[in-house]
Structure formats: C-alpha cells, structure tokens
Give the backbone structure.
Amino acid sequence: MQVFFDETIENEFARVYKRFKKFELESDESYQDDLDYLKRNLVVFKPLPTKCQHENFNVTAIDGSGADSLVMLNDIAIHLLTAGFAADRTCFEDGTTEQLTTRSPICTHPEGLMRLIILREDKSKEVWEEFLSFIKYNYNEDLETIVLRVLRDFVYHKHALKFPNDPFPDIKSSIDLHKAAIIAGFKLYKSDIFNFSDWMVSPRAAAMQGWYEQFREVVEYSLAHSLLNSDTRFKYIFLDGSLNMLLSPGQEQPRLASNYLLRDLCKKSLNKETCIVAVSKTTTFPFVYRIAQDLEKELGGEKKWFVRIPSKHRNEPTLKLLENRPHIPPYYGVTYLFHFSSEVPILRIDLDYEWYMKNIFSENTKIQKAKELELFQEIDWLSRDVRYFGYFFDLAFAHSSTVVSFAERDVVAEQLINYFAEQGENPKMFIHPRRRLGLM
C-alpha cells in the first residue's frame, strides 16, 4: 500500500496526537507526585576518569536474535535461532578494554551459536518434548532438575522467614517439596510440578511465533549459563531485557520455563560472585520520556544519575504510575532507572534481589550509597565507547554479532532448501507461497 501524505493522513496524525495528550493529561497528577519522589531520591554522581587506578575485572554480555518461520511447508515451520556474546577485561590504567578469548563450549562459532528448530502445528505433546530436549541440549540440565532447585530455593526463603530457628527439611522429590511448601506457606500452582504442560504458560502448538520466542530465550540463557560456568570469572554478565517473572495473581511461583532458567542463572551467579545486569532500552516504565525531559531541563543533558525504584514486594511505597504494573520492579529483582548521556534515553536495569541484599543493601545509608556509587561508576565506564556512548558497548557488540539481516535470512533459507533438494525433496515445496507468486 502506498501512503499518500494528504489530508487523510494528516487527520490520522491529529487523531493519534489528541489521544496521546489525553494519556498525559489523565496521568499528570500521578506523574508529578512520582517525579517529586524521583527527584528527592535521585543520585547525581561524578564518573570515573577514563584513565584511573581501579581494580580490573572481566565482563560479558549476551543477546539473541534469529528468524522465525525461515522455511515453511504447510503446517511445518523451521526457525533460525542465534545468540551472541562479547567478553572483555577492563584496563582502567590505560582507559581501554582487552577482548577476552573466552569461548563457550556450546558455541558454534567464536562469538555465539546458531540453532535450527522444526515445529508442527497442532502437536502440543510433540512440541513440549522438543522443548524439553532443547533445554537439556543447550542448558545441559533437565528442566525438572532446574525447576525443583529453583522452587526449593523459594520455599527455603519462605520457611526461613516463618521459622527462623527451625532446620529446613531435606527435599529430594516433588512430594518433599510439596510438603515443605505447605508448611512454609508457599503456594505452589500445582502439586504435580513436573507435569509442565499442565501449569506452565506456553503457546498453543499452532502459535509458532510464541514458541519461537520461548526457544530463543532458552538459547540466550543457555549461552549465559555456559559462560558463567566457564573458567573465566566475570564480575558482570549483561543480558538484554528485564528480570520480570510471569506470575499469576496471588502466586509467587513463575509460570514460564525461561523464568526458571533465569532464576537459576541468578542463583548460580551469586555463588560465583557475579552480578547479572538485565538492561532494558524500552523500559515499559510509564512516561519515562517525560521524566527524561524534565530532569534534563533541571540537571542538564550530560549529568549522570541513578535512582532506585521502590518495591511494594518489600513493603515500600509504590509509585502511583506503577500501581497497575506489578512487574516493575520484578518480584525477585531490584530496579534502577539511570541516565549516562543525553544521546541515550533513560535506561532501566534489574538486579537479582539476593545479590542486591548481599552486595549493595546496608542499614547504614552512607555505606549503601557508596556501594551503589561504585556499581554505577563501573557500569558507566563500560558505556564510554564512542560508537555507543551512554550504552554498554559489550551489549552492542553482542547484538551486532547475533542479528540476522533479511539478506542473511534469505541465504540461510536458500542453503537449507538446497540441502533438502540434495536429499531428494522437491525444493519448490519449501519456498513460501508468497515468494513463489512474486508477492515478497
């Protein structure tokens, strides 16, 4: 369809703009109250010099991409999944970083991995079996083992709060977990926790796009898991996204398989003294663009600052704008908004709650502020690359190594079709009908 810039499209511009301003006006009182809170708690900080005396450390970042429905044959779809990483060691004294030669054992090339999955519509049991084997193949553990370990940890913390002087029961099976959960007051969604297709949220077998996203997250978290278990100790592992958990109302138990992989990562990273930093460019934080504008007017465009978002999960006053967004901050996470440069919008990071309590939180506010300051000075230093100033360059590098262009997608699809043809299949059957008709 050709868009004509005439009175019709101008009317659409006006209609959308009117609704946009209506949203702002409806929320203005709440916005002003929340802005006052953010201003009172905001910390403006002085960055580390580019060259300075500071303890060096290793850092890595992971991102994922791919191409859904790379090749289709009626109800059968083949999807391409990719995940990439970048790893560096800081050299504060030289004001630069050194690329690490770390290679994850699950990678198919030095910077990442590529996977192909084949899914068929209306075969829910078959898709689940493929999904479970895919997790085992990439994460190197069964989903049952991961879920039991993560839920055991949840129940353990609930039990410790309720019975601080009592020993935690020995849990070796789902039956043991169910009994301990009842005692601790932790409500499991289902007593039969290993019947995943009965309680885990998953797309219908026909919903290829939804399954593609779940498989893609498994690839990203599996790559992070392999790097965490490598011989290289990382101070920070950056992930693209958030630590949001899909929770049903009134529940403390996540409902997505990828949530369990993510929680498992956070727990293992705590034991490795590694900080998982989930970075959101599109924060889903309401009116964050107005916050940016108002604070830049008051502080200037190049002031560096951060502010922690209060959490109702820890009995803190909830921001009015977040009353209908219980996933911010995440149930098991801590959220900050921060600003490093006027060239980059306000970003959001989520940290694991346990890591935060162990490494940042203090009853002494001066000590806590000093720890927060060190954290943000270090991650700001990791955002100094001139190509991506104000954004974590390793995440940018990871993204560049994994993104699949339309041209690359076509090349892989053609190679895949040729392979099928070499095996005796009719190649025309694997070419999308729109392409065969000249419509794409």
Notes: Residues 62 and 224 are 7 Å apart (CA to CA). The radius of gyration is 24 Å.
